[in-house]
Amino acid sequence: MLAHRDARLLLAGQTLSILGDRAMFLALAIWAKELTHSNVAAGMVIFAIVAPYVLAPAGGLVADRLRRRPLMIAVDVAIGLVVLLLLFVRGPADVWLIYAVAALYGVAGLAFDSAQSALLTVMLPAELLGEANGAFQTVSQGLRLLAPLVGAGMFAAFGGGAVAILDAATFGVSALCLAALHLRERPAPPRGHHLLHEMAAGIRHVFGTPGLRQIVVATGGTLLMAGFLETLVFAIVGEGLHRPPSFLGVLLAVQGIGGILGGLTAARAMRRLGDARLVATGIALFGVATATLVVASLPVVAAGMLVVGFGIPWLVVGFSTGIQLRTPAALQGRAASAAEALVSLPQTVSIALGAALVALVPYRTLLWVMTAVIAGWALYLFAARVPAAPAAIAGAVAAEPVAESAPS
What we know:
Elements: H1 5-36, H2 39-50, H3 56-65, H4 68-82, H5 95-123, H6 129-142, H7 147-158, H8 160-179, H9 195-199, H10 201-208, H11 212-226, H12 228-240, H13 248-273, H14 275-292, H15 298-325, H16 332-357, H17 363-383, H18 391-399
Helix pairs in contact: 1-2, 1-5, 1-6, 1-7, 1-8, 2-5, 2-12, 2-16, 3-5, 3-16, 4-5, 4-8, 5-16, 6-13, 6-15, 7-8, 7-13, 10-16, 11-14, 11-15, 11-16, 11-17, 12-16, 12-17, 13-14, 13-15, 14-15, 14-17
């Protein structure tokens, strides 16, 4: 994959952008916690980010109807300006602005994520899509080593405004890298059906495609429980380990080590296991790791976070590549966004429910419930007879002449 100049540029730009995102997300949660002294308020920051993904089909339609690169550049510039609104946060009365920026982050991701998924299918041959998704996951999860230290460190030293400025700068670099791509895109095809009919095409494809339906259902079921962890992690740090909220940055760095290992091995594992079994294995690892988080021991919790980090890239790479390989080119954006919506809605519900339950139910009880349900979804996907990705569709994705990207 790295032999392709455009792939290198895209990866470089997104590496910096992800660094800014990871630092900003942690800073927003810590900021809300410090302003309100509430674990629920901190967890609701993540809820605000993922909640807009219930509207993901609209973002997918935009990604299929506009040229992907200009769309991604526009989103980068817009959200880069939005995060600078955080410079106006002064005290507890301004916490609403943190939630507003978090929600707009989620809105920006609606079109950007779908456009990037579709862009990869015309930038690279089908056999390299797993490698590309693995590389992005290696970067995304690996930056947990650096981004939490940057986010928490800058927040402690200079405040949230400094983190916002850093994040805005990384969006600018991402836009410049996208502008430098040697990518010539054809004009988007004209609209052929009613707007709602076109938006629903991705959902119809996901549910109508054997294998893809099972992968998405199992992932959504897993995230219906996994979202609890966004809030529970603050209780794990405070009640279980008796550490300050900023110590979360250390645990996320440990998770990043696992993420690097998982990202580096995901593409090779998928070639052996296939996309569905790779997702099932990632889910199983996540469930096993969740059980270790009930122990009030730093080494045990750290080991659990390491396994969480390892399992997430396997789940995401199998999920993302499965969508790309099982979807015709004309539906790439809508299929990606539909799948994202179908797994984000359970996650959104889970985060909100977790934020409410953590004040009523011991966090260890919630972790045991998570473990049991996630294990059940892993068993479901292992037992399912998922057909391999059709070679005809994979070939069509690779051969679609929408863009040209010359290797170096």
